[in-house]
Amino acid sequence: MKYFGVYNPMSGVIIREIKSEDKEIFLCAMQSSQALHHPWVKAPVTPDEFDEYFSRYQKPNQKSYLLFSANNLAGVFNISEIVRGYFQNAYLGFYAVEAHAGKGYMSKGLKLILTRIFKEMGLHRLEANIQPENNRSIWLVKKNGFRYEGFSPRYLRVNDVWQGHEHWAMTYEDFIKDNNDVLEKDHIDIVAYNTEWPLLAKIEMAKLRASFPANSVIDLQHVGSTAIPGMAAKPIIDIQIAARSLEEMKIIAVPILQKLGYEYWEDNPDSERMFFVKGMPPYGNGRTHHVHIVETSSRHWKGKILFRDYLLSHSEAAEKYQQLKIKLAREHKYNREQYTDAKSEFINQILKLAQN
């Protein structure tokens, strides 16, 4: 039996819209998966329930896709309440099939769904609402780039009980952020010193201090090359925030800074720092600000201030650093990680001098 739909030859899975003749295989798969689904969702398991389900997903603002691997039904993805106009949004639901759970098929299928949603249907946003204890489903959407947007109590009725749900969402910008053309837009440029940088930093620090709860922020400092008068630099204002507690900040900082236009680097491997970027493509036209949140006891807080202050008082070292940055920006224009790594030896040398 052939299944025509969206196929990814690298993943070995296919998705296609549900058909009326799928009734038997659909019900068999859902009936055998009730233990897996309970208590999170209730899939159709009777002929009448399938008929109602199938009818609902024939409407123009609803889509149901079946996921197949080697002609076996491995999962179901439901796209509901598709809204056009200013919103361009839809909601995502899904059912795994017990016999094929835990094999990576749902993740592969979700990638195909996202391609369908953002590239073919042209939507801007997709939201999945998941009960907080449903760890498998949360892991699935998080792994595939969805971001946590909050929690609503008594949000959806599941098994005749109103349950609270977490909101996980992805926008078109999230979907394309790792594309090569987007990454190339986030390139490194070193520009001449701008006398407005100190004022821009002062304005932004005032906004930041006003946005956080009282006593959660101990200090704010303008750091990095834009804090050194006369130095050519990437046109990005770096602001370091000393927090009373990094654990507290992990709870409150993300929504606060999102309102100010920042994106959070959730995959940052450095456990001593939270890092936020404003203006980074595709969320903006170019980086304008970085925010680093640390505790005062961290090496980051002391190190960035020591480095800045040493260059402020040692013009020869500042000139060497400027020339190094210009050279490295030419060599690593499209690779920020290599650019940063290549500066580390010089920075460490300066920190040793500053500490003596």
Structure, briefly:
With 356 residues, this protein is α+β, with helices and mostly antiparallel strands. Helix content is 39%, strand content 26%. It has two domains: 6-176, Gcn5-related N-acetyltransferase (GNAT) (Aminopeptidase), CATH 3.40.630; 184-355, 2-Layer Sandwich (Beta Polymerase, domain 2).
Walk me through the structure.
The chain has an eight-stranded mixed β-sheet, with helices on both faces. Strands 9-10-13-12-11 form a five-stranded mixed β-sheet, sandwiched between helices. Helices cover 39% and strands 26% of the residues. It is built from twelve helices and 13 strands. The chain has 356 residues and is α+β, with helices and mostly antiparallel strands. The relative contact order is 0.08. Helix 10 (299-313) crosses helix 11 and helix 11 packs antiparallel against helix 12. The protein folds into two domains: 6-176, Gcn5-related N-acetyltransferase (GNAT) (Aminopeptidase, 3-Layer(aba) Sandwich), CATH 3.40.630; 184-355, 2-Layer Sandwich (Beta Polymerase, domain 2), CATH 3.30.460. It is elongated and about 80 Å long.
